[in-house]
Each structure stands twice: as structure tokens, then as C-alpha cells.
Fold these 2 entries.
Entry 1:
Amino acid sequence: MTDKLLISASGPLRGTVSVNGAKNAALPIMAACLLTDEPSVIENVPQVTDVLTMAEMLRRLGVEVSFAGDRATLRPGGTPGTEAPYELVSRMRASICVLGPLLAKHGRARVSMPGGCVIGARPIDLHLKGLQALGARITVEHGDLVARGSPLRGARVHLGGAFGSSVLGTANVMTAGVLAEGVTVIEHAACEPEIVDLAAMLSAMGARIEGQGSPVIRIEGVPRLRGARHRIIPDRIEAGTLMMAAALAGGEVRVEGARAEHLGAVIDKLSEAGAQISKLNGALRVQAKGRPQAVDVTTLPFPGFPTDLQAQMMALMAVSRGVSVLTEQVYPERFMHIAELCRMGASIAREGASAVVKGMTRLSGARVTAPDLRASAALILAGMAADNQTEVTGLEHLERGYQGLEGRLTRLGAKIRRVSDAAAP
Ligand code: EPU
């Protein structure tokens, strides 16, 4: 039985919506619990399938994981495993973030090589370079990465690649460095808020880390870490998606938990598109009227415009006044949504790593299939600005990273209905 969403032209949106915890902070933070023998409690964990996949992975590695609402309790103590199998890694690339903690704690790890995915090739050379600098010996055997190295030794490592820094590469080297002997310095580290949140968790576990949030992170290794209690930051991508929904459909929406310091580039571009964004106590308010103005956007590592909001921004551009240019500098192949948006009447021409979007007054409702997680949100937004009905399938992508997105948009006034194929006429 597969679900689909039926979306009708919607707006204006009105009301308050609160942001869940950040999936991309929760995943490496859950993996970091492998670094200790003591239990940890993580709060504000989003209930999305990627989190469940990570929980399944950790159980295979000997951690007892239980959820009570948005609180996860992780108790290491079973027979510790060191092997991350293909069926889980192939389901979720972020499984790679168990590599650093396993290696640091047990001196060895076997993690299935993540393949490419629809958003591009997604290599892991920077992860390996960083871990090798700490003394790990890494080989590829039968499709698995086999890493050995005990003890790891702190080192200076430069983690810049052709497309800038690597978020999970930085996470892997940080989680290895915290238990390495001596000092590790990561240059060209990712500055994303999710890395700062991981550092907060590791520090609560007893790690010594400085410079998180800047391109140079310094870690002084400690012999052991303890369990910790930590609250995950609000999801800036979910916040940005909700803000874009309001900018596209018009109205007035208060996005509770959205942090201006995490969303600078998004606030800047939505303001340029004509939305009024105000910083309130613990929230951002978006007010918008009429069609957005065309804007040019380039995705970049933080604090630049996030690639994870590129598809949603393209939906907004598709109904803006004028011509917008969207350039993807993080994943130059992340354009699977263009074809689906064009099925809805959007006028988008791809030129290498850029898309030229000519805004239309309205889109036209169609049957579309979500090709990946962020594209699924983009298609929902596009459906809200389309005549007649839009039918979105491929919702397994949406559920990987958004908790109840359509219900929350519906409460703001969007016309979205979930039906299962079995219930469809
Ligand atoms: N790259 C390399 N070598 C590496 C690693 C990355 O060349 O060893 C390249 C990538 O191909 C890409 C760029 O560096 O061009 C940045 O990739 P990064 O490593 O930062 O991506 P990631 O850490 O694997 C995380 C998020 C992604 C998000 C990117 C970029 C998690 C679980 N995933 O992936 O989130 O797009 O950072 O911000 O944190 C999503 O949530 O939809 C999603 C895909």
C-alpha cells in the first residue's frame, strides 16, 4: 500500500508552526553514542525514517535504542559489533558516520562502501583522508571499507575538497579525534550548525573541542568518554521549507524554533524575493503578499545558501515574477526535480550546474513522483501554487527527513490530503 498526496492551490497560509529537531544533527550525534559504554539521552529527535535506520544500525552494533516521543535513549552494552552492513548503508548514506566512532572505540570497523545516489556521485575520499591522517589503515574488501588503527594519533588534517568542506567527513574525523592520542586539528572543517551541535554532544561526553563553527577545529584527545544528555537543535532545513511555503503561498506564518543565525542566507534571499521576515522571540515570522520576485541563488556550504533548500527554492522561483538563476555549487547534479517541475508547467532550462527559471503566473497540477527527499518538499510547494490537483507519489523520500510536513502545512491552511492507494477510488 503506497500513499500519495493530493494537493490543491493553497494560500494564504496563516498561523504558527513549530520546527522539529534536525535530522542531520541527530544522525551523527546518535552515532557518537558508540564512543562510550554509558547510556546517553538525546532529546528533540525527529521521528523520521532516517533516524529509525540509524537506530537499527546502532542496534546491530550492540546499542540498545529506545524512543519515547522525541526522546531517544541509547544504551551501549550488548555485544559490541563493528560491522555496518550493506543493507543499511545502501538505505542511508549517512550510515557512514559510524565509521569514526567505531574506529576510535574499537580500533577497527567494517562499513559497507556507500554508493552514489540520485543527487550525485557523493565520494568519501575526505573521510578516508582524515582518518588515515590519524593513523588508520583503510582498505576496500568485497565492497566494504575495512579500517584498522589502534591507537589513533592526533594529527593536522586539511579537509577541503573540490566542492568545499564535507559535513559528515568533518563529523567522522571529529568523532575519531576525540579518543585519539594527542591533538587533532581539522582545517577547512565544515562550519554547519549540525557540526556545532555534534561538538556540543561530544563536549557533554567529556571531549575537548574548540573552534567548532569555524573552519579550524582543534581536538585534544581524552582516554574515555561518558554518556550524556543532549537536546538536538531545530531543523534549519525544515524551517526554511516552511518559510518558503509561506513566501510562495502568501500570508503570515510564525515559524517557532527557526533560528535566524542558522538561516541568514535564506532570510536574505526570501527578503529579496519580497517576503518580510521578522525575528521574534524564539521564532521567525514570514509575511508575504502576491507573487514573489525573481532572485538569483547559489548554494554553498554554511553560511551560504543550503543545497538542501535548493529544490524548494526552485519551486518558489517557478512562480516568481521574472527570471531567476539557481546555481548548485555543492552537488552539481542535484537537479532531478527539474523534470517533475516541468511536468507541472514550470519553465526551467538547465545549463550545467545552473538552472534558469522563468517564473509563470501559475503552475498546472499534475501527477509527479518525488525523486529524493528535498525534491519531495519542492513538489508539495509547487502543488500549492498550481491549478487543479497535483498528485505526489514517492513519499518514502519525504518520510526520510520530514516529520508530518503535510499535516503542518494543512494546519496553516494548505489544501493537502494524504490517501493510500487502497483507499483511492
Ligand atoms: N565530497 C567529496 N569527498 C568527500 C565527501 C564529500 O568530494 O569525501 C563532496 C560531495 O560530493 C559534495 C560536497 O563534498 O559535493 C559536500 O558533501 P558533504 O560531505 O558535506 O555531504 P554529506 O556530509 O554527505 C550532508 C547532509 C546532506 C547535505 C550535505 C551538504 C547529512 C546526513 N547529510 O551530507 O543532507 O546535502 O551535507 O550540506 O548530514 C539531506 O538532508 O537531504 C541531505 C542530502
Entry 2:
Amino acid sequence: MLKNIVVFIAIFLYSQTVEAQWFKNSFKVMGTQAHVEFWLESNEAKQDKATENIEQHAQQLISIVQGEMQRIDEAMSPYKANSELSLINARAGTETLKITPELFHLLQVSQKISRLSKGAFDITYASIGYQYDYRNQQRPNKSAIKKALSAIDYSAIKLDEKQSTVHFAHHNVKIDLGGIAKGYAVKRCLALLKEAGVTHALVNAGGDTGLLGDRHGRPWLVGIKHPRAAYKMAVELPLENEAISTSGDYERYFIEDGVRYHHIINPQTGDSARKVVSVSIIGKDPTMVDALSTTIFVQGLVAGMKLIDSLPDYEAIIIDNEQTLHVSKGLQQQ
Ligand code: AMP
Ligand code: MG
């Protein structure tokens, strides 16, 4: 982590009293690449002092963003034995556990999207999900899937809001927040930057991007990756004050006998969802767009568009198996 490269960009606007500058930083966290970019202004009268202060201030903000993402990773990673999520997975099948309000909140949001999508989004997908190992090209066989399917059931997660507790009504239930935690981390980081007085910022973690304001007089340009050409963009969108999340079958996968096994699982079958290849959701709330991109990916074009068109605050761009691009009604009107 210490080897992170800090890139300070070079747009200096000198005047007698105001100095302003873009700052950028990229780092690895939550098993992915994260990126932050923001505009800082200093109203100090003395220019030299201002430069020192603005750079110190930028470093501070970068540390806050990195620290926040790392903190969320420590709590929610399934790969860290001591994370709160791992503790829940180890014990909530047999006892009622008190959990932090933060994790409780994310479990509640996850339940809400599960109900909204009739189980297309289901964090208990992990009851089978943990038997996939994409790096080593391992997948569960049919009988392992069959055995695990009864533990894929979001209604088995019992939440008590007053006590802030969780209990799994089925012994073998496991949960995973990979479909929602990065969006939440982006949301938290944007809130911290805003609190610090920043008005133009971009925070990205993997396929999740959140924007504060515009890119100083012009919109931010956010790309949606081409699903079958690693370094190409399928689309670039001018956005401001929005969040966008993309779920794609090219992020973590292996191909066996011509079949693509990837990280987004249809909870009904325990197998990878294959109705579409890429789903991007645009809206104000980074947590929601993250969860919805995973949801719509599982639902596919017809049911997915129907759900998005019923939600006035969210729009979708879906790329189907023939690599045709489809956009939701709200985007067609623009
Ligand atoms: P994203 O990249 O946001 O689409 O999220 C993909 C991640 O969501 C996967 O790596 C899993 O951690 C998790 N996931 C996979 N399938 C589901 C599902 N059906 N419901 C909720 N989370 C899922
Ligand atoms: Mg997602």
C-alpha cells in the first residue's frame, strides 16, 4: 500500500489571492483499483504559504479517502478472517449476533433490494458463491450446487433493528457484500470530501464511480468498458453529481468448454447469470446503483429494464449477448 503512486496534476491557476489545483491519487483496496480526484482552492493571501497548505490539505484528503476505503474493507471483506462479515458468517447460523449500525444498515439495504427484485439480488448467494475460485478455475459441481441451494434465501437473514442484531434461520447460510460494498465505500468517501468543503470530486472503486459537482465548468466523462475488448470503451457519458456502477461478466471469470463462469451468480440456479454481458446503472446514490447493477445483471434485459423503468431515480445501459446496447426510458428522452 505504501508503494502507492501519488500523482499531482498540474493545473495551476495563479492569481494574487486564490490558488487552485486538481489532485489525483490511485491505490489498491477491496481487491480492486481505486481512484480519487478533486479540485482544491486556497484563499490564502501569501502564495508560497498557500501552495504548501493546499498540498498538505490534498494529502490529508487523500489519506482520509484511502483510510475510509481500507476501514470498510477491514469490516466487510470475506477474505479477512477477523472482518465483521467473517464473524457473522462464522456465527450467525447458530446464534444471534449484535453488529455495528453500519453493517446492519447495509444488510437492511440488501434485504430491500432482494425484495424489490424478488431475489435476483441476494447476498446469501455466497452460500454457493464461496465454492467458486475464478483464479484457479474451480467451480462447484451439480450436486454441491443442489446441496447449497436451500441456503440461498435472503428471507433466512433475520434482522432486529432495535437490537441491531442478525441471525440466520438456516445453519449453512453465508453472506457476501461484494455487490454493494464498493458503492457504499464510494458514497462514504464522497461524503467525507464534501464535509471537508470539496465541491468537485470523483471517487472510483472498480466498476463504481461517484461524482461531486462537475469537472469545473464541464461534465465529467465516465466510460463504460467494452465487455469484450479490455482497453476499449463501449460508451463515454458526460455526468455531474451522479453515481454510476457497471457490472460485467469480464471482471472475474474463466471459460470452460466454451462456457463463461463469472462472479455474478443467479441465486435461483447457483450458476453464473448469462442473460446479458454488461449493466450500468446511473443515479444519485452510489450504494443503490452498485446493488442495482448486480441485480439487473441477474435479471437480464426484459425484467431488468422493467424494474429500472419503474424506479424514477435510476437509469440503465445494458449490453446484451449480441453486444447490442439498450438504454432505459429516461435516457431515451434526452
Ligand atoms: P458487481 O461487480 O457490483 O456487479 O458485484 C459483483 C459481486 O457481487 C460479486 O463478486 C459477488 O461478490 C456479489 N454477487 C454475485 N452475485 C450476486 C447476487 N445474485 N446478489 C448479490 N450479490 C451478488
Ligand atoms: Mg454491483
